[in-house]
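Exercise 7 asks you to align residues with tokens for two separate proteins.
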Amino acid sequence: MLLQWCTLSPAGPSKLSAIRFSSPSRVHSIKIFPTGVQPFGQCPDIIARTEPESFFLDVYFNAHPVGSPVDAKQKLKAPNALMPTVIPYAGGIVEYAVNMGSEFATRLMIVRGDFETVSMAIYGDVVSDTPPKSTTYSPFSLPTNSSIPLVPALDAAKSSDPAALARNLLALIPNAPSLSLVIRLMFCLKQPNDDWELPEFPHLYSDLNEEEMDIDLDTAFRCLSRPVVDDVSSEQLHRFAKKVSEAVGPRDDAQSYLIAGILSRSASQTPEFAQALMQALELETIFDPSTLDEDALFTLLDASTNPDVSRLLKSSWFLNVLRAVIALPTVTPEMKKACRRLSDRVGSWTVFEQALSGVPDADYTRAALFLKDIGKEEKSFGIWLSCITAHEDLLTKIRDAPAYDGVYPLDLMSGLNPSEEITHSEFMAFVRAYVGVASVLAVYAWSDSLPNLHCRERTLGVLRLWQEIPGYRAIISPLLLLRQMTFRLECMTNGNDPPTTAGINAESLLFALASNPQSFLNPDFVRCVRGWEPWSLTWINERQRADIERAAKLADEGLGGAVEELVGFAKEGQDTILDQGRIRALRVAVAVIMHTLEDNTESGTKSGDWAVLEAVWGERTHGLLNYAIDVFTRISVEVKQGFSLTPPPSPTIGLEPLLLVANESLHLIACLHPLSIMTTRAVRMLVSGVLDIYSRTVVAFHESVANSAVRDAALLVKHACANVLCTLSRSSQDQPKCGSSAVLRTLFEQGLHFDNIDPARRVLSAFDLVLRVLEDDGDGLPAGWMPTVIPQILTPLTHFFHHLEPMHKVQLVQQLVGLDRGVLGLGEFLVQGEVKRLAGLLKVMAERGVVMQWEVGAGLEFVAGLMEGEDGDWCISALHRTECGTIMTGLLEASLYSSHLGIIAGRLAENPESLGIELRLSVVAALLRGVQVQEPSVCRMNAFGLISAVLETTDEKDRDPERLLWEVGHALGAVVESNDSLSSLDSESVVNTLLLLDSPSQSDLHGLTSEQWVKLCTHLETSLPANMLPMLPIIKGFHPSPSSPPTISFLPSTLTLPVYDLISFLQPPAPLPSTPPPKRKSPSQDVLGLVAISPPTAVLRSPAVTGLTKTYTRNDFRELRQLPSARQNTSRLPSMHVDDFLQVEMSSSPLAQPVAPSGDMLNLSPSFNMGKENGYI
């Protein structure tokens, strides 16, 4: 609501103005209007007046505490507490957000600044010192993803001409050159300062005909320092290319560099120029391993950004030259990097063109990473942009791309999106957005070079808008780190007093770059932010500036400073105070170390590993991996607090930066693991932390619908968690207890450890990670790991397995069976154990009711899921030696059924010879019961055909006609009652079934009425083949016996309980009664217990002994005194009286000795030295 509208003028030498609110108010925003604007449409007489056009405002709010009781002393101090803020006003209608929090309000607002008048509207809420307590429940709607699409003019991803916005912005400059010329001048062909002063600039072109005589390579190279006019004739281009070809001489380093330079400078010109040079030059006679130095390689790297040059360099001879250069003993790491990048770039152009065409199996991920690579150097970036906007074939593919339905383009340069999950339209939207952003950057560079303030301000506004939008942000951030872009933004942040809109936008762009630790690896960016003076910025406050400067200083210190920061953070432990500045510094430290380690891949050496080790030793410490694990554990604890079932404390930092630093620290751990030796304790602590944060990120990903940044960070952490566990499991180190065994054991145990979190999500998260670890993805787990690892973790595996949902059990068992390949029989062990557990549940099902029914149904669903799999034969074989028949019989006797029971019976009936007689009859009964209830899974199969096939494998004496005919009668009654079942009924199988069950003593078919029996017989007469018709009289010998069908209930597939039953079900079981512990003995008894006293009766006469508790009754004490000392033994069985015990003892022989049992004493199973850790329960 509008709290206040006012036009303020400063008063007094302090230039102060004040606004007093009538009641405590919480300000949300302040909107300033320029002179001449009507702020309210319904009040045309109100006109704003703000002078001058730009200035700084110092705003102070008095802090008025609300919402919590305070004592009188605090209330007296409260009016004197001021909360300051600074508003940089650069003109126009601008609204500034104010975050006062929920604990404070204000009554007074003081404004100070160098202004004459300022018109502002203050928006907020009126609050009360004692807010009323809510007596009614008001439900809140869940947040939704409220992404606002861009207007078509700013959404390059959906435009058929993505460079149109850049051309419109360029038109703001009078007499502006074409966009293609701007791109060449800003990125490809840098002109000397003298040319900028010439009146005909920028239209200064190379004259390819100025040399009528023969030219040398150096002259040709210098001739191309200026752009070639677009309408140059084809004859001129081919004539110039021929002169260059004629100037080629014997191979040497200088010639190789000049030819590479000519190719590089022609790559950004008209497409025909590079094609003419490719036709005229014989590059195979120019380049060889001895003439390619570092400068020539990097120049060719720029030239290969042109598609025509790339096609020529993709030939096998040139790739062999690059391999030969890498193999040279004198090659430098930088040359190795250049060779690898050049080889990858010439191959990536083909991949990129295929992705543009949308060919099947196009590698969209590699094509997107190709664009990320060319954006690292200005010249490569400019050449690609010139080609993509000048080559007609490429423009046609972009123009005719399929429509994109998404709100914003996808971030494809992260490399996390699998190529098969990316569609052609999504990739083309990404390419269009990239072209649009790159073109606008070229216009910004041109407007800043002139300078043209209006065009520069508008262009920076567009760039700032894109910086805040997912998809565009991923494109613009790395391009702003180009050297000239960073320099231009740095110049715009210096001397920004009074504030300007362009300066504020530049600060916003740099601040967004500072949120990414990769930016601090750019020395130009570090130099930029370290050049900021205290209190010199307008949009970035001083605390943020100090945090950014600290991170930049850390990056400047290099590897040593990064190791010191990481180790220091780890040593602080749980006492570490986390804020934005500390998280930023930690992320930069991790990025610096990771950048050094990644140097191994780019250079093909181990220099990065050695540099990290030297830096660790330089800090007089060791075990950097353990410190990295401590850092991750600390972050994991912080993330856990925000997702506990109990209300967490107020967070001091947002979730997104915590997830990002967790992701980066996990990648660091994965890179440090091959350099270190981990203990089992470290592995268990790491895996436990990974499971903790993985389960939280799953919640964050599904619940942070309105915050795309948190969702993206959560997705990164999920990938990192799986990656680090796979790294630990596939370790080549000779540490069997620290590899897959420790990882899986910890996941199984910690997955069932519910520490203030949703148990279902915890188990599901552990299951997901277990499947990731067990994935056989080509790298594979160590050879022969199953026989070594599984016996060590069998007990926690079995316990964890019992807590999974049926379909998850199926996935886990199938994965383990595929890895086992029948060596251990692990799948059979788990299936037989599950069937045994179900048989035990069946015995107590009547007592526990619906809960046990649901659990039995879930167990049957698991078995059926395995049998329905592609390779379910092993499961069928495993069921032969189980109590499966007992379970079927028990369910049928309890009038219970399940669709999964019919599936199991159907699969078992396919091979009845291997089944026991009891199991065969149970299968027949289960199939018949499925026909009775018209279960779809049974109706889809030829049930009577399977039944007759099973019965044919049994002897007549083993069949139970009375029981089975009862089931057959009710099954046929259900079939006849169904209107559409007779047409699909297998008449031959029905007749065979009845013939096999024909018995003189039993001819009644219960469940069939006379009408139904007549209808069935009529159908049999018309559907049976001729050879079966003689059997009809025998069939008609059966007598229908009407009876009510049994009441059959289905096992519940979901569990629904009243709250009362749920509470009682979750109550812990009552403790079993047990013997109380013995009382503590007196000190004298403890002492005397160590002394042998003879005779024993002396103890009773000793006055020093106290605390005796034995009580003697009748005359047993006197009789005990009269016995010899050898017979004074009062130990007896609990059920004997002491007199009876003495008689037994006196009649026994004192010479009887125990006899050792005969047989092999070593034949013990299991061995005494094998416990639970070895798989025995």
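Second protein for Exercise 7:
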Amino acid sequence: MASPSTIHSSINKHNYYPPPNNTISYPGSPISSRGETSFIYSNSTISGYGGQNRFPQSPKSQTSDPLKSYPPSIYNTVHRGSTSNEEQPSPSVSGSIQENKSVFPPTDDMKQKAIMDLKLSESSFKIIYAGDVSYKPDKGLLSITKKVHLVLSNNQLLVYKSSQKARAELDMFNMQQSKQTAIPKIDKDRVFLALHDIYAVHYVVTPVNTFRIEYLHVHSRQSLSHLITAESAKECQHWIHALQKAIRIHRPRIDTVTNSEKNNVIDRISKQSDALSKRDDIVMYKVVFKEKRYKASGDQPKEVFLPVIFAIGKFSFYFSPISTHDGEYLKTIERDRFGLLSIQSIKFDNSDDTVIIEVRQINKKSRQLVFATTFCEIIVQYLRRAIDSIIPPNHIPPVYIANIASNIKSTRIIPYIIEPDPEDDILGYDDEVKMFNSTLRAYCASLNLNKNRFNFSVNGPPKAKSFVLHPPNEVRDLSVTYTKYELIAILRSLAISNFFQEISLRDIPLSDLESWNTSSSDGWSMVENHPFNNSNVLSNEIYDILINLNALRKLDLSNCQIGNCQDEKESAIAAIGLIMSSGKTSVSRLCLGRNNVPKSDMLKLVNGIKEHKKSIKELYLDYCNLTKEMSELVLKTLAEKNPEQVLCLDLSIEKGKEAISPDYINPIFQVFRRLVVLRLRGHNILDDNYKLSLEESHLKELDLGDSRIDNDMVTKLCKWIRSPSFLTIEALHLGGCNLNGRHVYDILTSISQSNNRVMHLNLENNPIMKEVMHLPKLHSAFSQGEGPTSISFARLEWDDPTLREFIDSLRDNQTVTHLDLSDVTMKDTDIVSQDTIKMLSSLFERNSYLKDIKLNFKYLKKPRTSLSSFSRPIISDAITSSLIGLRHNTTLEKIDLTGLGMEDPGALALAHVLKTNRGLKTILIDENNITIEGYRSITKSIEENANQVIHFPTPKMDHRNQLKYLVYRIEELIMAENEAQFFLIHTSGGEKKREKKHELEMMVQERKACELATKQFGDVIRSLEIAVSKNLREYQEQYSRSMELQLQAQAAAQEMAIAQVRIQGRAGSVNSFHRSQSGSISRQNYPISSSASITSSNSSINNSRIRQGSITGYGASKRVIPESHNSPPSFPIPRPESSIYTPNGNILGQGYPVQPYPNITNSSIPNNQNLPYPPPEFEMLPQSSIYPHKGYNEAEVQNSFPDFGYVDDFEYDSEVSYMYHTKPDTSRYYDIQNEEQLAQALQHKLYLPPDTRD
């Protein structure tokens, strides 16, 4: 232990993982299992007087149990017990020590016993310690040092001029007995301090052998202190331990905080929304804050002591001033709030009442917060309890290092439940999402972040949720991307939440974390003795996520700007490979595309795939600068590992790079027999050099983009399209393949002949309109409805007549439901003709099959600076003028107008449409340079008329750009006003002065309008979000009510059918009953017999709704097709680079639909024309925000997600799907032959109101 003179030196470095046993010993004092000094009263130890004044010891006291005199306390949570072999106490007290079974917070029995012991102590008298000392009060008229003789009793600290005076008034020999006696009459002048007024005893740096006693004035409760100097260091230590022991029993009576101080602290905590639900639950104590100050001229520090109030909230702890006008407080504390998760270490060695908390700081070294209080053990335990309530105590690596006594560390902490944010309760989040939000709020408090910046979505059932991080919300003038500290908060919150099965950070820049080197000068970057111990922060954070999340199966880091490390350091890609090699993670799906992966890092990743304990099911390495050799190595490794487990593979490369050898491509479908997604952009695998047999595939998605396809290749492709293997395809990408109109016509007709028209065809960036001789035939094909239901003509160049004819061919098209016309460019014209505008408006008005249309402008848009003009495509005005055709359209549900630069005319046109349109549910209109007036008009239309709009993404870019422009315009107007005023001052009367004055008035009005718009723009956007959220909430409520009504109607129909069977009264009626049910299975599949018909009839009733074909719904929807071993099972397809629409409204591979709401189609429910919703047997989940479903059975959910993927396993079931199939409730179905049961059901259920049925 450090000497008193160095007790407050800098904290020692600790290991990352704290040792299991931290036995602390003090010079000359044995340690009990409680970690406290056992005071043995003998001539040579504490019970004698200091120096030469010692008295004879009673013989009984030498043999008495030293622990019997240790008084229990209301907060003393330690019980006697025997230590284990790892924690052996000193021989002098080991016989009386038992196993520690302590609990915190104390129980009612412990509190009651402490109060009884306090009353017993106050009604008796006993001397504990005495000795000669020198003391000096810190305040007073004559602050001089006095030498006195102090006597410590069990209730008071007495003062005498000498030991002889003390001996004359007190029977020192008899008072050394272990038993307590009656209280003698003591002169009040002899009372130096009452023990219940002392709130801290601690060492000081200078002078040596000195300690301070902090106490409260008897009447004013002002904080005062005495400086006590003992004759030696050992004597000083004995005094402190004796005072600690004597004061501990008086803790129930010590009240250090007044009511006014308590109210001030509660107000401060409430401002941070950090207060607990009950005011009395807030931990609050008066402490002495200690700080060393060094002068430039000397090495000897000056120690400053400042009484403050220590308090603990939900996510932070506070050092609040006693007086609001305390200048010394601001100078010493600097800041009054510190996050609980910023605590790096807690040190309390029980040598005195001092606690040292080391906290992490942003862009600074960690800081030590040193304070002293007699409630030190209690505060340490409350801090541990508060942290354990946020983060599980068994989390590895631990959040902080606890360098505390073993008895405190082994105490069982009972955490409390943190109340969720009111917003969480309003939105109905489940417990897992609430826990994640609480953890994130705690990190935001520790890093001083704004939680409103975070934008993410959580979907899925319990223990199998998916997390998607979106770009940050616009808050004031903060960065448009996440800062490195915001990323630290989100990643560490994820590492603690062991219920995520998928984590997606796609398109979120992580380069700041990867370039952030670990350093002791930044506490948030440095974790001592981290198991992975990588030089960059991102690798360590990825390690924590992969190691701690046992349920994690998929990690998406696509386009995260990873791999740009300097000085040839390893990237996070290499870290993932090393973690997979260690066998400590269960990830089997990796999305790492569009990152710069060096060759050395790729080799480590490939080696990790090879040595991984699980088989890789999905691997996306598109545009990762892979060479031919590296791509072939990846294919070889996957083929050697367990090729039958590979489901999705993406090895796309930039156009013009060397492609993979045919030796690796040709047998790909024979090796990877269960492959459902294959993306090989840039490899030109339809070339004659390749002998790839597409007819042997069972793909759902194929990407052949950026390939040079000629007539022979198109013929070969069309042959495959007409083959049976094409029936499983849901998306075919042929973008950038140099296709002309004739090629497209052949592909469209082949798709029509294939009977698989419910799929997406991507024809973007092809010169389709270049050879005009093929266009009439192509337009005729569209007019006749040839081709798939979803098609993309993005990034195409048109001339005005060709565009008009194409739109004309779509007006009466009855096939296409999803159309992508984004990034339309015009050739040889600067304006779109009125005829083309009328044709586009007519398309909106006449087409009754189109559900989704994209008219956005994204790829070809020029980057805009804060002061540059908005780039407007030529098609912008045409789209604005044609929106009027949507006034009475009832089928179009989604329209994307992002990036067109329509400005306020476009917003006003859309607002006018929404007054009468009742079909649009999703509208995307960001990046259109719309002002506050435009969004105000849209908000008004949605609030008053368009209650069907339930998805309107926040226009972040418009909000940001408008605020920048308004600030710039205000500054410009202020300068113009100053110039105008200068002109008016120095100009005499006349016409020019009047004109200038009028001009000045106009500038003032415009400036005020800009200032008002700056203040109100955010409020208008929030009003828009509130209106859309209200519509979504009403829609969900209506949907739930409709589902309930449908369930009741179907239950009543079943009961009526059973009643029919009973009335017929013969066994043969079962056959007719079986035939009469709608949706039942035909006889050839289910032969009827007297025994089998009963079972099959019930099963057909229960399951008929599941067999009614395609299901479209809220969450992930997919076609329900019975699987067999002969046909490829149904697997979810990961998200492609561009949006791919599937027949049921999904973005292919995301597992959830494009819209965050059910697709309302009357064909979804064949048996109920009035309820256009999916069957009730399917529980759905939302996409865009966290709306958990309350109908999950956790046990069933866990069983529905088996841990597939090991090398020797073979996966027959489909992978994780967000559609949860509930088993039908058969409890209400009765035996048809039991007439009594049927009669009872009819009497008690059939004619009861729906709300009273079981």
